[in-house]
Amino acid sequence: MNRVGAGEVEALFREFGNDAWLELVFRHGKTFHVQQMMVTCDTRLVEQLMRDPAHTQRRPSSYRWLRRVTPGSDGLLFLDGPRYEVQHRAVAPTLTRDHVEQQAAVIHAAALKWAQSCQGDVDLASAMIQLGASIVLETSFGLDPSQPLACEFARELIGYKQWSLPRDPRRRLDVLGLHAQLLLALPWLFANFINLHQRVARMRRLVAHLRAERPRCPMRRTNWLDGLAAEQLPLPELTDALSHLYGAYNAVDFMVAAALFELSRHPDWRARIRSELAAVLGARPYPTSGDIPHLPLLWGAIKETLRLYPGSMGIIRHTGKPLEVDGERIPTGTQVLVLPYALHRHPEYWDEPQAFRPDRWSQSKRAHPPFAYIPFLIGPRKCMGQLQAQLELLVRVSTILRAADVDVDADTAPITQFFVPRFAKDLPFRVRRLDIDKIAA
C-alpha cells in the first residue's frame, strides 16, 4: 500500500484543484497512506467503516483536535459518549419524518417569494445562504424571521460560517496532509482564531437573550433551541451546538446552489423537469416526499447534485477493531479517511462519472456499487438531518424551478479543495420570472 508525502499532496492540489482527490486515487490506488492517516475509496472498506458500530463509537482524534482549535465548532458531528447522547436526544424530535414534512409549506413560501422578487446577484451561493437562513430560523430554530433579534442571530450565524469556511487556504486547517507551508500561514490562522472567538462571544450574548425572551414563531412547537435548552446545557455549549447545527444545515444551501447551476447549464433537463412537475402536481404548489417515486427526473437531478457536489470531501473513522484489505491488516485505533468525492466520481463505479445525468438513476443499465454513493453516509453515524435535507432540496429546487429561470453566468463552478467544500468562485446569476399565475401560492 503506497505512502504519499504531504509535499506531493500539496503539489497535486495546486495542479488539479479539488480533482486532486481523484488524481490521488488514480496514481496510488483506492487505499493509500498520507502521513499517519489511511485514505480510501474502496467500497469494501467503506461498508465496514460505515456500518459496523465498532468504527463509529469513538470520534477520531482529528475531529477532537479541530473542535479545540476552532472556536464555536463543538457539536454533534464531533461528539461521542454522554455529550453526544444528550445532544442527539434533544435534536432527534425535530428531525422525524412527520415533523420534517410540516416544514414544506414554510420552505415553499420562502422560495417562491425569493423567485418572484430577486432580479439576480453577484453570487448564487450567497443568495441561497440568505434564503436558507430565513427558512431555518422558522423551521428549526423556532424563531420568527421578522423579529429583529432573530435576524441579528441569523446574521451572526452566516458571518461565522462564511468566516470559518474561507476560500483562502492560509486560513484553513481542514486539508489533507500537514505540510511546511502551514507554518507560513500561522499569522493568518491566529487572526482567524481571534475573529471566530469574537463572533462566538457575540452569538453567546444573542443566545442568552433568545433563551430568556423566546421571540419564537408559534407554529414551531419542537425546535433546536428549546430542545437543547431543556437539557440544561451551559451557555457556551448551547451556543456551540446551535452554531454547529446551522453549519450542517448550511450544506443544503451549497447543494441547492449547485442544483440550480447544473440546471442552468442544462436547460433541456430544466424544461423536462418542469414538465414533469406540472404533470404530477397539477395545481398543488409543491411536492412532498410521497411524490418522489412519481418525479424520477427531479429526484434524479437532486441525486446527481449530491453525487457531484458532496457535503464533505472526507469522512474520518476511528477503527474500533482490526480490519483487513488485500492482505494488509489495519489495526485498531487507525484513522481512516473515506473520500466521497472519489467514490462518487470513480469511473470503475460510474458510467460518464463527470456528467450530470439525472436519468442515470431511473434508466441506467449499470448499477453502481451500494457504497459508492454515500451523500448522507450510512450506518449508526449517518446524517441525522437526511430527511430534512432531502425535503428542503425537493421543495426549494422545485419551487424556484416552477417560478423562474435562474441563469448562471459561468461555465464552470469549481469547488474548494478542503474537507468542507464550497464554491471556489462567485457565481453571478440572472433571474427570469415565469408566469406566476400558473403556480399555486
Write structural notes for this entry.
- This protein is α+β, with helices and mostly antiparallel strands.
- The chain has one domain: Cytochrome P450 (Cytochrome p450, Orthogonal Bundle).
- The chain is built from 18 helices and ten strands.
- The chain has helices at residues 6-16, 20-28, 43-51, 61-69, 81-91, 97-101, 104-117, 124-139, 148-164, 181-184, 186-213, 224-229, 235-265, 267-281, 296-308, 340-345, 360-363, 386-403; strands at 3-4, 31-34, 37-40, 120-121, 315-318, 323-325, 328-330, 335-338, 404-408, 429-433.
- The chain has a five-stranded mixed sheet, sandwiched between helices. Strands 4-10-9 form a three-stranded antiparallel sheet.
- β2 (31-34) and β3 form a beta hairpin.
- The longest helix has 31 residues, at 235-265.
- The model has no long low-confidence stretch (mean pLDDT 92).
List the defining traits of the structure above.
441 residues; 18 helices; Cytochrome p450; 3-stranded antiparallel β-sheet; alpha+beta; 5-stranded mixed β-sheet
Short structural summary:
The chain has 18 helices and 10 strands.
**What is the CATH topology assignment?**
Cytochrome p450
Overall structural domain count:
1
Between the first and last Cα atoms, what is the distance in angstroms? Answer: 58 Å
CATH superfamily name?
Cytochrome P450
Number of strand elements: 10
CATH class, named: Mainly Alpha
Can you give the mean pLDDT? 92
Spans of at least 5 consecutive residues with low confidence: none
Q: Report the radius of gyration as a whole number of Å.
A: 21 Å
What is the overall silhouette? globular
Specify the biggest β-sheet: 5 strands, mixed
The number of distinct helices, counting runs of at least 4 residues, comes to: 18
The main sheet orders its strands as 1-2-3-8-5
Strand content: 5-15%
The CATH architecture name reads Orthogonal Bundle
SSE string, helix = H, strand = E? EHHEEHHHHHEHHHHHHHHEEEEHHHEE
Helix content: 40-55%
The structural class is alpha+beta
